[in-house]
Design goal:
This protein has eight helices and 16 strands.
Length: 275
Amino acid sequence: MRAAVFQSRTGIDPDANAARLVAAMAEAKAGGADMLFTPEMSGLLDQDRKRAAPHLCKEADDRVLAAVRDAARHHGLWVHLGSLALKGGSDGRLVNRGFVIDDKGAIRARYDKIHLFDVDLPTGESWRESAAYAPGERSVIATTPWARIGLSICYDMRFPDLYRALSDAGAELLSVPAAFTVPTGKAHWHVLLRARAVEAGAFVIAAGQSGRHEDGRSTFGHSLVVDPWGEVLLDMGEEEGVGFADIDLARLVDVRARVPALRHRRQIGAVETCP
């Protein structure tokens, strides 16, 4: 499988963002890719909720999703559209939803981000995802012609139980689209993604947002492809663009044979606290 990764600097205009996605898909296809992976919030990145509100809609009405589906059909390219902000949460909040789209433009899988990022950082940055977004409630694996892909989004990477569930269910590749902050990215991005790959004995593809965005935020970049041994096959640094990596599932078979940790997993009982 030849994977393409789009590292973007998504802005506040969904139509402009859609155009960048479509151009990235053309570049991916020209580079021989079978599937393109895009970051979290590929359609709109705007922390000004009043300004963003007119662009938010339900899945069926989202112009970015429609443009990507049309381009997937046109190019004959699979896409993991990392996520979009959409109306549709059961309690009236938005959902942060990723899509796997096949080469005919059909949606093969949907995943709503389970773990939401609520934090006050020493830099003064404050994030309250749960104020606007409802959490997802189920883990998802998408079946493609090349691999079974376990879906997740950004902050999910800090919760290894999700990736244990995905690998126990047969995931061979873990997709982690993100819009990671710079301070936490410098400290944790590489080590967490390499750990998830090693723990699951799986490939990891993490397409990230990068740079200074129109809404004033900064994201870490360094979109990664990591193999099951924890080796970094692609690190895109900080620039926007499309990168490529070749995924050989024979590598996964070899690593899982050498370190058969998945077969050795056991249920953990109640914790005994000793006085």
